Amino acid sequence: MAKCTVPAGGSDLLTDPSSSEATVFTGTVLVVDDEKNIRRTLRMVLEGEGATVVEAETGERALALLEGALAADAAEPDSGGPGELPNAVIMDVMLGGISGIEVLEKLSLLGEDGHPPLPVIMISGHASVADAVRATRLGAFDFFEKPLSRDRVIVSVRNALRQSKAERELRDLRQRVHGEIIGTSAPMRELMRMVAKVGRTRARVLITGESGTGKELVARAIHEASDRHDHPFVKVNCAAIPRELIESELFGHEKGAFTGATGQKKGLFEVAHKGTLFLDEIGDMDLDAQAKVLRVLQSGELTRVGGHTPIQVDVRVLAATHRNLQEMAGAGEFREDLFFRLAVVPVRMPPLRERLDDVTLLARHFIDQACEENGLARREIDPEALAALARHDWPGNVRELRNVIERMVVLSDGDLELDDVPPELRADQGPAQTEAAPGTMAVDDDRFAQLLREKSELPLKAFREAVERAFILQRLRDNNWNVSRTAEVLGIERTHLHRKLKILGIQRGGR
């Protein structure tokens, strides 16, 4: 089939005079095209902008490179070795073996939300509208036709590298806070993206949300995402410190400043120097202390109680509250100027009832945690028990769920069953729902009977594989073919699920 080629001696891609914006790329781009001239031209353009270029002449070769790099990246994310995952891909739609669209489809199974694990830019000299639509649905970052415009290539690759960098920072953040912030629901994914984005800045953040939603965990995650993560993270519970001691705790005191001040003491602002100070329940701080906190935020200076010498501090302040500070400011119960200083970036913690999809993951995490803390053997939880937990609205949020799970673990004699769920959670829930709880499969006698009839001639092993295949397919569809989320719901490693998909012959959109 004829293809749109670039002349060996030069091209508009190299000589386009309209590109005047100075651009410096940092990252590796995989160029996949079975025409040597196209690869050579793209290499010259991208390397001229500072990128590192890797080439592949076939879809099979590209897929092997990417799968190997993904495996190495999962095993050693920071290795930076020769098998390092590229930051972006430029790939032709039509290749000699498997097509670029087929490679994109396979990559979409390896990423999250049905998207490839890195930005993929598709190019073609003879693509149809259907090809472009399919590529977009499979998560292509961009799609354009040959002859290639140098400006278009540079802008698209620059944006792809920026997205790749942001996604890697988000993944690194998740690894640093692994085991603390649990959840794959849409509200939690958006929250983690916000954390990664604001963490890179010096902006002050006000975290709001009901009690028990995990505001402190988010504050720690913001600290871990910042360039201050090697310095102290200091928490102050403003509601737990008596009014007469709050200033001493925050700003320190000199010897003899008041009765009982037998020596000099650094305040928590000084302790947090170069790091992050987290003012939890800031809405409970009295107005006098608020005024002094405001002065520190404005000037970066504080004076210890009983002292006269200003002390310079470099502290990023994060604050949290379950109260409505704006309403309190209107009522004169909170300083409006301090509210605006603190709430540069507001972050809302979703209550657990808004992310019930995460109950299964949280429950299993807290089961493992409770077993370890109490010296008990690892325990499983029955699907009916999970379903009962998923139907509760959790007014106490994640904290309430953790306490309930620990109670169930401590009082049970083995694996957790429906009878181990506290009676108050089981009461007035009505009959079991026909829809399964997240991570479980509803018992459907008719469906199972149909499987028995259809597969009655199969030996036990083949029948078990047929049931397993149907179950995994349903979970994949439930999670919009997000392999990572499906693996978490199934309670297995993502690499294990990928092997299962290959063994059982499951492909995206398959039956």
TrEMBL record:
Residue ranges annotated for the Response regulatory domain, each copy included: 28-161
Keyword vocabulary terms for this entry: Activator, ATP-binding, DNA-binding, Nucleotide-binding, Phosphoprotein, Transcription, Transcription regulation
Entry-linked InterPro entries: AAA+_ATPase (IPR003593), AAA_lid_NorR (IPR058031), CheY-like_superfamily (IPR011006), Homeodomain-like_sf (IPR009057), HTH_Fis (IPR002197), P-loop_NTPase (IPR027417), Sig_transdc_resp-reg_receiver (IPR001789), Sigma_54_int (IPR002078)
One MF annotation (Gene Ontology) recorded for this entry: ATP binding
Pfam families: AAA_lid_14, HTH_8, Response_reg, Sigma54_activat
Superkingdom assignment: Bacteria
GO BP, one annotated term: phosphorelay signal transduction system
SUPFAM superfamilies the UniProt entry points to: CheY-like, Homeodomain-like, P-loop containing nucleoside triphosphate hydrolases
Sigma-54 factor interaction domain segment(s): 181-410
PTM annotation (4-aspartylphosphate): residues: 92
Protein name as catalogued: Nitrogen regulation protein
Source organism per UniProt: Enhygromyxa salina
